[in-house]
């Protein structure tokens, strides 16, 4: 629309709001905004009216009331006298735990299956196809229930470990028990028990001690903190469970700091070797030094802190000691990982197939072996195609973890939107809060992954 | 070169050797195996491991699945049969009787047995309705008309109701189309779209109800007497039928008891006697089952007819009562002050009383009493009105017998939720995708916000919204039944994903298409309608199918909010004391059903992808 | 009348009438159907058979109410509800009465605003353990893994019990009875806890019921009964007195077999006459026909018959009357007089 002269300036007419493209977009947006606000207002007024009719008032004060129920898997201290809010937080941590574990496993399994599907071994290729189709075409809820049922039926009950000739035994040097209540694995402990033994005698080895735990938000009025504030006695300085909001293991902190320092030093050594190589062309042998700076301080610190493994042992009804990976966690984790892995496998496969065969041939022409072709040429390029759909699979897995209620895994859906909702009758508040939490998690994951994606993205001209 | 022969020397061969057979190790089964299974040590290990895995799975599953329990009628009978075969314990064998007993229920839920043809037909007709869209080159274009009426035919077949409801819906859309085409020519596409949408809303909220109410009333009045007579005849007929069934039932039960007398003896005899007995009893049991189903069917019909008869008999009093009630209710409310008059429910009243007791509100007691009267009268009026409307609707109905959505269940429920939600989410998804691509920042922000919100929360939370909150968000007094609410939330859920699929399709179109449309002088909507969307949607079809598969699988989540989809039914079946304790058979069957549906759909979508790949990317 | 408007528009899809207000009786009569909330499946209490016909102890209550209001025990729409959805369904008017073994508690009555019309089953939370465990009291369960059904008062009772006895336990929350049973049988938990009726029902379907014992401790009172919304006393009365009619019928010796006979003419017992409408007109007082109780009793029998047919000792569930015997037999089942 080129005109030689400017159109004559006209006075503004109302119809321009509709027909003049300069103004129309503004009109449309304002109309849309008004419509949107009206919709929101309508929903809120309906809600207010309905709640008033039901005699309910929206309020989040119930979150401060005692929850009254117990949760089996808790990553922070919790008991039935704690608040609904804390119960929800325990649930949130459980959600995050299974989501992170699931994402990692799904990626590993998915990549392996995706690559194996392209394998030239006919049988393996077929099995992988069957696996992928089986998992992709059956609802994940069914898989979760199925995995749980298998866990329950296949592994022995703890009582099978009892007796002179038990039907089942612990595996891996008697340190791991696979039961149908979950897996009991050794956990890492610090220091020696400074408590007297059953006869009241002080144990012989009391010189090696851990640093103990540091409670955040400890309160002298709290009975559980009595031992923490005590200056003498066997447990002096050690907070009981329930003292403070969160307890931080100082031993673990120290170990992590030592490990981090070691890794940093190792990194510096590598940098130095790189510099030398740049300058002289010779690369000094550094593997022993790099290994030593990581391992030695760690071992020394671990010894000083009295790090040792606590083995599970059958006591009473259950195994005691060690870490208990409950079968609800394992079933959910396995089912989600395997289900998502089937999708990831397809993504990986199509990512690999998207790389033109010229790349493979060129790499082969350079004399690279098939394994190195995959690692050095194909996968790095395929990764760029793979990552965006991978992000949405991670999001799906996290969202699907909300199906935990099917196996009684107490995640945020099971606590806040489950028992809390049921006991308090606060549907509006609990459901909206749960949605908000999931939304936040999803947005966080996608922003982190998008940031990573932008970093590895091929910079195009 | 021609003189090779002339220079031939003794040690140079001058004739071609005949082709030799390839070595035995590279052809046939052996060669194939060497090539595909045992090339290299790594592959060999993989193959061996795979073979062991397969062998192990087969050795566990096959003996379990091989179990002659098809005719058993309870878990105990299964156990009896298996014990007799010397198979004990937890994995003794499958109990297929549960599938035999309940597979129809797993497919159709509680849908009336005499009407199974309706859902079957509805889902079968989906194929001809989709054909003109998917295979425009192979089927006559006339079939598009069928595609156009299918969206109203489908719910009509499933839910039933008078024939004029789907017709009026169609009329509404046709009128909206007319308005759109007229206005878009006269004053721009946007105005046309807005006007047409406004018309559709008005039509659905006011017009449709009013018109069908009018039809119901007119037809109802004229057919009232005839219908009453017909109902009475039918009741008499069905009651006689029921008496016959009862007699037959008693007879068959006696027969069965005669056969089953040998039960405890057979259990002790062993050697297949018990299995034989079960198999002998099978025809009788089958007959008994059929009779029970028939009795149930007729019983329900009589119950419905009786209820209709009573309502018809009450109709005239109800019609007379209405004006009186209306007047009295209005009178009771007339003098109330505004804040008291706003109270519309009993709970509101009790809240008001609470406030009065707390001294927060000052309302004279006669006002409270008047309000109470008004509330009672209004409730009565509302119920009476509803009764009158419903009765007229039932009397006037020419069409299909209505089926409540509560009676939907099993696979059919999953399919219905999936199909309806995907169909509804497609237009919403297209609009959202366009909004997301729009240059108007506010519009874009709204669409992105909606899409990201829906995609950021798990479906289960949306289903909880459907089951616990949706009614709270709607105007007081409106209430959809739970399946409609689930469909609404599933539609919102699917439309966010659909928007992303369509956006992918839009992004895949070369820029030249947009520029070409612009250069033809088409405006935005014309360009979208004529150039962009047809291509973008075509590219998106595989994505749409996979969204459908995803949603279809996710419909199993409705079991968590208490709907009886296959998974929900599995719990209900296991609550039957005959089948209490069944695990694998029923889960396996459900998994198989889903697998068959989803796998065939995904294969079909792959085929479509190849077919639609017209190569202009 | 927004609803009617929607009604016209959505007849295709079917619409549940719902109004959280008075006039439930009128609504039910207008609809010609009673919407009754039941459990999605609990052996003996509510479960659909292969024809989709619901049956069970709770279902019988629904049928009796439908019979007394509408004269037809089949005029019921059963709405399966879960532990989480049941109260919303009732509050929003989706169902008229909830008969889903729900415990009568203070907060449900007062805070959630429901009226419990009575108790149709006196229950209590108990424990079941395998005999091989050698446990004879719940107090010996220190460190045990306990399977609980979520969405009930069970988990709160359990937490309170173990806390007050200062012993530890590992809770395993499970959604449905069927899955809890599976876990318990496989030994994934040592103890299964739920209402004692549920324990007995579950135990009865085991392959070897004798291998399992129900511990003597009953750690809670679980009066289970049907409930309706606050604020509609007329409707509450109808459900309450239908339940009472079933109880009174057993006490007075009225059964489904003889009820038609007894109702055909006035007899010597005035209370029977009043109940069956042959003397006075109690039904008219709450807007029902005089033979309301006759219909209710004819629907599924009196309380004793319903009990015996669905969960009694001759059924696979095999519960004895215990607390649920008539007060004349030392139980707690007791109906106020019809007068």
Question: What does this entry show, briefly?
Answer:
Chain A: This is ABC transporter permease subunit. The complex is a heterotrimer of chains A (461), B (617) and C (339). Chain A has 461 residues and is mostly helical.
Tell me the quaternary state.
heterotrimer
As residue ranges, the low-confidence spans of chain C are 1-20
Mean pLDDT of chain A: 84
Number of strands of chain C: 13
Most extensive chain-chain interface: B-C, 96 and 84 residues
Sum up the overall morphology of chain A in one term: globular
Domain Solute-binding protein family 3/N-terminal (chain C): 33-262
InterPro entries (chain C): Bact_solute-bind_prot3 (IPR051455), Solute-binding_3/MltF_N (IPR001638)
Family (chain C): Belongs to the bacterial solute-binding protein 3 family.
Signal peptide (chain C): 1-21
Structure commentary:
- The complex is a heterotrimer of chains A (461), B (617) and C (339).
- Chain A is built from 13 helices and 9 strands.
- By secondary structure, chain A is mainly alpha-helical.
- The longest helix of chain A has 34 residues.
- With 617 residues, chain B is mainly α.
- In chain C, α3 runs antiparallel to α13.
- Chain C is globular.
- The N terminus of chain C is likely disordered.
How would you describe this structure in keywords?
heterotrimer, A: 461 residues, mainly alpha, three-stranded antiparallel β-sheet, two-stranded antiparallel sheet, 13 helices, 58% helix, globular, C: 339 residues, alpha/beta, six-stranded mixed β-sheet, five-stranded mixed β-sheet, 14 helices, 13 strands, disordered N terminus
Topology, pairings included?
The complex is a heterotrimer of chains A (461), B (617) and C (339).
Chain A: H1 16-19, H2 21-54, H3 84-117, H4 122-136, H5 140-154, E1 177-179, E2 182-185, E3 187-189, E4 213-216, H6 226-229, E5 246-249, H7 250-280, H8 287-304, E6 308-310, E7 313-315, E8 318-320, E9 323-326, H9 327-354, H10 357-365, H11 370-400, H12 412-424, H13 427-456
Antiparallel strand pairs in A: 1-2, 2-9, 3-6, 4-5, 7-8
Helix pairs in contact in A: 3-4, 3-9, 3-12, 4-9, 5-9, 7-8, 9-11, 10-11, 11-13, 12-13
Chain B: H1 28-36, H2 41-65, H3 75-84, H4 97-108, H5 117-124, H6 126-134, H7 143-159, E1 161-162, H8 164-187, H9 189-260, H10 263-269, H11 273-334, H12 338-341, H13 346-357, H14 365-396, E2 399-400, H15 410-437, H16 441-456, H17 459-473, H18 482-508, H19 511-519, H20 524-554, H21 566-574, H22 584-612
Helix pairs in contact in B: 3-11, 4-15, 4-21, 5-7, 6-7, 7-8, 8-9, 9-11, 9-14, 11-14, 15-16, 15-18, 15-20, 15-21, 16-18, 17-18, 18-20, 19-20, 20-22
Chain C: H1 2-9, H2 24-31, E1 34-39, E2 47-48, E3 54-55, H3 57-70, E4 76-81, H4 86-91, E5 97-103, H5 106-110, E6 114-116, E7 121-123, E8 125-130, E9 144-149, H6 154-164, E10 169-174, H7 177-185, E11 191-195, H8 196-204, E12 212-214, E13 222-229, H9 233-252, H10 259-264, H11 270-276, H12 282-285, H13 292-300, H14 303-310
Parallel strand pairs in C: 1-4, 1-5, 9-10, 9-11
Antiparallel strand pairs in C: 2-3, 5-13, 6-13, 7-13, 8-11, 8-12
Helix pairs in contact in C: 3-9, 3-13, 9-13
